[in-house]
Amino acid sequence: MASQENVQATMSTKLVTATTTLQPSFEQFSSILADKFVGYLDYLNNIPGGTIVLRYIKSSYKNDPVRSLFELCLFILACNYFLSSKKKENRSDILDFSEKEIDELCRQWEPAPLVEKLGPQKSWDLRCTPEIKGHNGAMVQVTTPHIGERVKAVNLASSDFLNLNESEAVSSAAKSCISTCGVGSCGPPNFYGTQDVHVRLEEDLSEYLDTEQAILYGQDFTTAGSVIAAFLKRGDLCVVDSGISLALQKALVVSRCDLEWYDHNDMDHLDRILSELSPILDKQKPIRRRFIVTEALFSNYGDIADLPKIVELKNKYKYRLFLDETLSIGVLGDTGKGLPEYYGVPRSEIAITIGSFALSFAASGGFCVGVTPMIHHQRISSLAYVFSASLAPFSAKSASSAIKEITTKTNSQGKSVLISSLHEKTSYLYNQLKKTLTNRFFSIVSSPESPIIHLSLDKEYRKRLNLPIFYGNTEFLLNGKPARKSNGFSQRYNLESYILQKVIDEVLIRENILLTRSKNALDHENLPVANPHLLIMVNVAVSFEALDKLVKTLEDISHEMSHKIRNQEDLQILEQELLTY
């Protein structure tokens, strides 16, 4: 029995030994592979430069040569991937054309148009654009297709309210700057785009507007989009006036913040919205950034914001105020410092103020003023400041000179002579129009303080012609997001604009006075668009006699137009006339 057990034990031992010999462990296999790999690496000594590679492998991975082998395979795979063709074409699918066939295909090819072709309903708007020859000032040489010859006209279609485009001091400053600095800065401000004239303008601007610091932008339209996007992100909240300009609309869309809209210049509605949002916002953690966004002088309507009430509400509900003073700087207040000076509100109550140099300052570009930390934040995070070329040096010099012209020429009461003259002529023209236009054709919709007087077709007259209150959709107002579809072409808007253009043409033909009208692109607007307005832009260099002629001519033309276009049937006749304009 014992002998039998010994035999079984011996057989089991031999079986285990044979199994071990036939099935080596993974550790043994990797050890054998490593030894062979290290042996093969010795051949690198025979290759030029191979000694360096061998030394690197042995010193870095001497305890794990399998890893070196794995990395070598990855390196070979990467080289094969990047050096091989991205797309292996099937040669059987490639067609070979003769030169004759290629020429024939080229003759048949018609490129797609870069822009949409204008139809007869839209092309009239392009043909009626006046062409100004030479200098642009209070008096201009203008040509239109209807006149056929150049005439000298009084220019009430320019936003150069203070007529500083014709100032010798501003022109001389620009010329001297061009002779030393050239016409461009050739770089963004944070690199080599900032020159001494930019620093001086920032100092002049902050001193003029009673703020800590200022920052300059090369383009005024993009200023709002860059400033708002630098401070507001997804999840932040803006309570916005529904009458804001296109630049502010696009800026809010870019920021992706949450939007709540209050009725245009309606402080009761603003108060109601803020009170409804207050209990919801107070419970949310972390605290969301909150802004009230409005214009000082509204470009679409010509009225001014109720700044004291807005400041009261923003302090009550703990909001910051963003104010766009594009049209109000150089216009409102005794020295043109804008809406805060007009109402006597400290500039410190406004967190962020933006504006433009392209209007009263006779230059170009935009700016933002406020406290030092807010300005410094923009210098490193505002896209139009970091990545765009800085303001042209001569524009900066012109703006500094314009500020000097406004502030140094004062009367005995300490008011700016230029600003006082603008206020006087604005008030005179406004009162004369209000007293004269009583035939229910035109009505004034702008504020008495606005140098851009907005004349709209009267409400009752619009009802007779079945013209809507506004154009476009309300989707942006309802949910705060851009409309999925752009506003389409509106024949009613087109006809209403044409009526105003006929008035503009008649004023130019009869009295050589150039006016303009609002020109909103429906397919670019996110908000409902107000009806077109006839715009009269007051200029300090225009005489009172010219203003009287304008008022008398507008009275005569409005009487004629109201009798010519009385109902919808007359509007249909006008539609046919528009096709041959």
UniProtKB/TrEMBL annotation:
Its cofactor is pyridoxal 5'-phosphate. Residues 153-441 form the Aminotransferase class I/classII large domain. Keywords: Acyltransferase, Lipid metabolism, Pyridoxal phosphate, Sphingolipid metabolism, Transferase. Signal peptide: none annotated. GO terms for cellular component: endoplasmic reticulum; membrane. It is an enzyme of class 2 (transferase). The keyword Transferase applies. InterPro entries: Aminotransferase_I/II_large, AON_synthase_class-II, PyrdxlP-dep_Trfase, PyrdxlP-dep_Trfase_major, PyrdxlP-dep_Trfase_small. It comes from the Eukaryota. It holds the Pfam family Aminotran_1_2. PANTHER family: CLASS II AMINOTRANSFERASE/8-AMINO-7-OXONONANOATE SYNTHASE, SERINE PALMITOYLTRANSFERASE 1. Its EC number is 2.3.1.50. One of its GO terms (molecular function) is serine C-palmitoyltransferase activity. This is serine C-palmitoyltransferase. Belongs to the class-II pyridoxal-phosphate-dependent aminotransferase family. Gene3D superfamilies: Aspartate Aminotransferase, domain 1, Type I PLP-dependent aspartate aminotransferase-like (Major domain). One of its GO terms (biological process) is sphingosine biosynthetic process. Pathway: Sphingolipid metabolism; Lipid metabolism; sphingolipid metabolism.
